[in-house]
Amino acid sequence: MRRALDALYDGAAALAALCMVLLLCMVMLGIAGRSLHFHLPGTDAYAGYLMASAGFLALAHTLKRGEHIRVTLLLSQLRGGPRRALELWALASASGLAGLLAFYSARLVWQSRAFNDISTGNDATPLWLPQLGMAIGTGVLLVALVDELVLEWRGQRARPEAGGAEMLRNE
User: Fold this and answer.
1) Structural domains of the chain, count
2) Which residue range forms the structural domain that includes residue 99?
3) Which of 12, 5, 13, 14 is nearest to 147 (CA)?
């Protein structure tokens, strides 16, 4: 099960990376178009869609690598049972919020598809296509948060060392 979950997180991260490469291509096409006096409609919109998809698809992978920003002012002062209780509460709350976000993101995709909703730009992109990145990303984030909650519940969750790698990422 662990390998399947890690493959899911890595797959979502790979899709996020692909979106970033495609975003670069869209930006380069826009720059080339302005420099060489040609216009490709929709490149700005597609760049925005790809940026949003990349952000959402990378959420779970970032969480599992311990790279999300955490406010640990209170948590760092607690030890033992109170610290574990606060961790469980935080992960349960985050899982609930991620569940709502995943549900409503998927619902938005379904409604956009059902109503044939299209973008207002020249490209007339069916909006369910760019919304799919958000829905998939929030769904994978929900899985990752529930995974972290279960690991914390079982006492198997890895924690960064105090003053170690986490402190190096702080600004």
Assistant:
1) 1
2) 2-169
3) 5
